[in-house]
Amino acid sequence: MKYIIANWKANKTLSESQDWITSFTSLLTTDTSLMESLTQNRVAIIICPPDVYLPLLSTGLSNLTNVHIGAQNVSAFEKGAYTGETTAIHLKDYATYTLIGHSERRSNFGETDEVLARKIQMAQAQSITPIHCVRGQQDALFEGVSMIAYEPVEAIGTGKNMPAEEVVAKKKEMNIPETTVFIYGGSVSEQSCSEYLQKPEIHGLLVGGASLLPESFLGIVRSAVSI
Ligand code: PGA
Hints:
The chain is of the alpha/beta class and 227 residues long. It contains nine helices and eight strands. It has an eight-stranded parallel β-barrel with strand order 1-2-3-4-5-6-7-8. Residues 7, 151, 156-157, 185-188, 206-210 line the site of 2-phosphoglycolic acid.
């Protein structure tokens, strides 16, 4: 099975999010072979919107098989006097996954391996699966994490996606266990996705820019099932 994950980052208004749900649902439900692939677990879709739209997405997509909701971040604290935080306890009613340690969080918000270890713990305590984003060997890997997204910083949002061969080589260098779901992210597009999806070592894609339009995002999902 391949995982195709949408990371909207801090994009979209409420009405844009509603429009995305409407077009995504109609494009998906009218594509019988794609619907079948989801039912047969050949592909799983995870949508990670900004937190405020989690209830909207979770309700709006609840009828679709194998379409899951993820958060982009989670608090390192459980609950209490932490103004502005969204905790795993808040997320668990809407999301079954969360990104952890995206490079934009590491660079803009100073997230360290120590903080990320706590975030992973918080998510897992609420049965939310962390998708641990790493930039390369400089980032710690944690025991018990079942999904890792490798995103080289120079490939994010630049159009300079890393060749799939190099991604596979990096996976070896980082000693990612065989049992871990290994995802690539960084300028994945409808045009560039196939080379990754063809590699048995790469189990899915984390898609930023190309996930903002349902057409291009579903184009990538279609490639995942046509390989
Ligand atoms: P991009 O973002 O596809 O726009 O490069 C990927 C990500 O940062 O998750």
